[in-house]
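chain below, 259 aa
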Amino acid sequence: MADWKRGLRKVIYPVYEARMLRRMALDRVPKHVGVMLDGNRRWAKAVGLGTAEGYQAGADNIRPLLGWCEEVGVEVVTLWLLSSDNLTSRPPDQLAGLLTIIEGAVDSLAAEGRWRVHPVGALDLLPAATAERLKAAEEATRDADGLLVNVAVGYGGRREIADAVRSLLHEHAAAGSSLEELAEVIDVEHIAQHLYTKGQPDPDLVIRTSGEQRLGGFLLWQSAQSEFYFCEAYWPDFRRVDFLRAIRAYAQRERRFGA
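prediction:
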């Protein structure tokens, strides 16, 4: 992009963003936003960088996103950083580098002292050192009073539902319930109480970057009534103006909740 265009954007976008904020219906801001941070590798390729540099650029964009969320009143953010499928589909050296970047990103969020970090995912599938870093970040931020930030690492929606059912079965078995007795009482709420996000509101809005228009298993159970927003920008290029456009689009929709 020509330098003069970059300069013009630096002048225009802050004015445009301020105007959007003034006109935003703050009573219609989503309380829980899920974000699929997609397109890091494609961004790196497009700008002539290595894969690891793409992942790092994506990690560096997380803290600005959380600041934008605070600015408009979002209370819960779920970030999909690594799927359970990625654990087996990525080359070992690439996966090791990505896990190192994720560990550093989560440590950085915890060090802020502003946000409660909550790992969601099958931590038993992760290397022990990574799982311990995630748990340590959660413990260190337990008393923070800012955003609740779910970091989805080793996460898959189908796996989450299977884990929830498994946990439910173990709970009732420990209480001496028979399968027949469980079958009589099990319902949607029983399963929801065993999800990784138990006790949290379901996401109102799910954002996916990079132009892909599918969920890929993200928050399968929780997103039944969510609104979706698909953005063409790769995640490292996702800007405040893109976020505000997503929030504006959400606020303009009429939510019917299946009615």
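The chain has eleven helices and six strands. The domain at 28-156+205-252 is CATH 3.40.1180.10 (Undecaprenyl pyrophosphate synthetase).
thats it, cya
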